Amino acid sequence: MILYLFLLLIALPFIEIYVLIKAGTVFGAGWVILATIATAVIGGAILRWQGLQALNRLRSDMQSKQAPVEAVVDGVFLLIAVPFLVTPGFVTDAFGFLLLVPFVRHAIARAFLNKIKGSIERGETRIMFRKF
């Protein structure tokens, strides 16, 4: 898994440059620059709005003495979306915008938690608790 992530981080800049050059030849450099700036601004605005919603949910869950699981998961995925939206390029923006869609975030979180749960049930993962 770490190897795939490493390879993706190496390949991603080349993929972004390729896509930007292809888009520039089709639409023109000015439009590509404008679209890149627009996606960053729009993504930032949506991120701010959803971040404030997650914070308000966290606050209300804490006040009602409930576990703020959904708000924390949303916050984590929004933090993951930030570098994708800030990095110039259409591929990273697509990943960032996907993480801004609530049902996509929840589907990824469910898949991740199911994978961890299965790993724990098979005995591949151990959880250790310690007192400090």
From TrEMBL:
The chain crosses the membrane at residues 27-47, 67-88, 94-113. It comes from the Bacteria. InterPro entries: FxsA. It holds the Pfam family FxsA. GO terms for cellular component: membrane. Keywords: Membrane, Transmembrane, Transmembrane helix. This is FxsA family protein.
